[in-house]
Amino acid sequence: MLEELDGVRTRRGPRFGRYADAGTIYGRRRQAGERGLASVSRLLTRKLRLTINAAKSAGARPAEQSCLGVHLANDGSLRAMAPQARTRFKQRVRDRTRRTRGVSLPKLMEPLARYRLGWRHYFGLCQTPRELAHREAWRRQRLRMYL
Asked: 15, 43, 61, 128: which could join 26 in a potential S-S bond, CB 3.0 to 4.6 Å?
C-alpha cells in the first residue's frame, strides 16, 4: 500500500526513509522537513485513507529526529541510539533485576538474555561500540547487585 508513497517521494521532495510502516522525512532546514511532512500527510490521509500518529510525526533535520530508536547524523554517516532507546533499555533491565523480585538467578537470566540478545542485534548496526559496551557493563553490574 505504501509503494505509491515511495514513488511520489522519490520523484520530488526532501529525503526520506521508510521501514515497514514507519518513516522519516528529512530536510536541510526544519521548514523543508515540515513541508515534506505536510505533503506526505495529505497524500496518506486523502488518497490512501490512512491515519498518521501526530505525536510521533515531525519534520526536522536528521540530527534532531530519531526513527525506530536510531538517531542519524546530519549527513547520515553516524548511526547512534536515540536517548529514548537508552532510557527504555535501562528501565527494562531495572524492572527485571529488582532486588525484591524473589526469583532465582537462572530464572532471571533467561528472559534477560533474550531481551539483551534482541536489543544487541537491533542496535548492533549503530556505529557507537563504546555506548554498547557501557550498556553491557551496566547490565552486568545490575546482575552482580541482584546476586
From this structure: 15
Counting Cβ atoms within 10 Å, is residue 105 exposed (0-12), middle (13-18) or buried (19+)? exposed
CA angle 32, 80, 125 (to 5 degrees): 115
Enter the C-alpha cell of residue 87: 532510557
Neighbouring C-beta atoms of residue 22, cutoff 10 Å: 11
Q: Provide the grid cell at 45.
A: 490521509
- Residue 126 to residue 132: CA distance in whole angstroms: 9
Pairwise CA distance, residues 33 & 144, whole Å: 46
* 130 within 8 A of 86, measured Cβ to Cβ: no
C-alpha pair distances (Å), 80 with each of 17, 48, 101, 128, 133: 16, 33, 32, 6, 13
Rounded to an integer, what distance in angstroms lies between the CA atom of residue 32 and that of residue 45? 20
- CB-based contacts of 76: which residues, under 8 Å, 6+ apart? 62
Which cell numbers hold the place of 38?
505536510
pTM of the model: 0.65
pLDDT band of 140, cuts 50, 70, 90: very high
pLDDT per residue as tens digits for the range 114-136? 998 998 888 887 777 888 889 88
